[in-house]
Specification:
VC0802-like, 36% helix, single chain, 6-stranded antiparallel β-sheet
Length: 437
């Protein structure tokens, strides 16, 4: 008997017929003798509909009530799935976060799981039930409902698998694994059989619809292998696991496009110590995640500071930036929500030089202008105009020949780890000094 945690996304639960199919799949697994815990997302489109309804009332909803509202999507799908399993002759029990319970901090909209109590789930499993747990939600120390951020059902599933010491966790969606990029943008995108935690961590943080970043962090910390599968296809699948030498031979594994980016620029900020702290501390206190940051210092003693935030945080970030700009004596604040971030990711970038320069050259060949650049050991990201986002993905997918299996691609130049990082930084510096990057 194995203990299996299955997570089903909103696209797998979009209609009553699909819910019945998921119920049949979970019940078939249970009949094989396995203990089954299912984590359910809200039905497709429900969360977006709830968000849009709230934003029609105000662009700054009270976060406690915002989370209370959003949690209803998972409550509905969880109950419907349990009803479907019971109608097929199985025994299923739905559980909301307070019934598990799943304890989180009080960071509404982006809460973090602190502890999961497993006694109630284990009792229901022992009684022969399939346990259906509402994903995406938890409760804080004051019993307020919290949510874990978009894609938070992935985090719920991985956390439950770790807490229950499950034998396997299956993330089931409408795709049969993780691809080199979005197949809707590049038709020849290739499914990966295996990918490292680190690469998925980067891809998830860079906008790829793979797994929620906190879910990957948790899986990596607890070394929980994650199998990404199609809900309705018995073939395919991508295993997310620890990196190995074979993975490190692949220079670039994937290309990500993040459309949920907005840029904020504070103009003519006095160039003196403490300015950055006074600007970014209020954003941190408001639980607004800042991604890329660029500072341009002029000879006149002033600097322009640009940074990116998620689109849903732009209104609050703009207000806080204006307050900070006024206090700092800056000229003003300019925002731009017509930008996207395109990135290349791969473990092999640690030991192969030239990835950044190839990226810049590929974008230049399509007349795609780069506004911001950020690098790490295994990724290079660029902010570009929204209208060039999908073109940039296609250019980079072709440049690194990701449609081909690794052994048939152009051989990358090998170098020492330190030299590889230096090469990327040098290329970025050169590119930032030209009009067309």
């Amino acid at each position: 008997m194995a203990l299996v945690v299955q997570k089903y996304g909103g696209s797998s639960l979009a209609t009553p017929d699909l819910i019945k199919k998921v119920a049949s799949k979970a019940l078939a697994r249970h009949k094989k003798g396995d203990q089954v815990v299912v984590v359910a997302s809200a039905m497709k489109g429900v969360t977006d509909s709830l968000i849009n309804t709230a934003l029609e009332i105000t662009d700054l909803p009270t976060l406690r009530e915002y989370d209370s509202m959003l949690s209803t999507g998972e409550q509905v799908s969880t109950a419907l799935l349990a009803i479907a399993i019971n109608s097929l002759g199985g025994n299923a029990r739905s559980m909301l976060s307070f019934q598990v319970p799943i304890h989180t901090n009080s960071a509404f909209k982006d809460a973090r799981i602190e502890k999961i109590e497993t006694k109630n789930i284990k009792r229901l499993l022992k009684e022969g039930n399939i346990v259906i747990v509402a994903g995406f939600q938890g409760i804080d120390h004051d019993n307020n409902i919290t949510t874990l951020g978009r894609g938070g059902s992935d985090t719920s599933a991985v956390a439950l698998a770790a807490a229950l010491n499950a034998d396997v966790i299956e993330i089931c969606s409408d795709v049969d694994g993780i691809y080199t990029t979005d197949p809707h943008i590049v038709e020849k995108a290739r499914r990966l059989d295996k990918i490292s935690y680190e690469e998925v961590l980067e891809l998830s943080s860079l906008g790829a619809k793979v797994l929620q970043i906190r879910a990957v962090e948790m899986a990596m910390k607890h070394e929980v292998p994650v199998l990404c599968l199609s809900t309705f296809s018995p073939t395919g699948g991508t295993l997310v696991t620890k990196g190995d030498m074979q993975m490190e031979q692949i220079t670039v594994s994937g290309v990500a496009l993040d459309k949920n980016e907005s840029k904020v620029t504070i103009i003519n900020v006095p160039d003196k110590p403490g300015v950055a702290a006074k600007l970014f501390k209020p954003l941190s206190d408001a639980n607004i995640s800042v991604d890329m940051i660029i500072q341009n210092v002029s000879e006149a003693g002033y600097t322009d500071i640009s940074f990116t935030v998620r689109k849903e945080d732009l209104a609050r970030a703009k207000r806080l930036a204006r307050d900070a700009a006024e206090n700092l004596g800056a000229k003003g604040v300019v925002t731009d929500d017509k930008v996207v971030k395109v990135s290349v990711v791969g473990l092999g970038m640690r030991s192969h030089a030239g990835v950044a320069s190839r990226m810049f050259e590929a974008l230049s060949s399509g007349n795609v202008n780069i506004q911001m650049i950020s690098t790490s050991e295994i990724k290079v990201s660029c902010v570009v105009d929204k209208k060039y986002g999908e073109l940039a993905v296609r250019l980079l997918h072709d440049e690194f020949e990701l449609h081909k299996k690794p052994g048939s691609r152009k051989a990358p130049k090998k170098t020492a780890k330190k030299a590889g990082v230096s090469s990327k930084k040098t290329a970025a510096k050169k590119a930032s000094g030209t009009k067309k990057k």
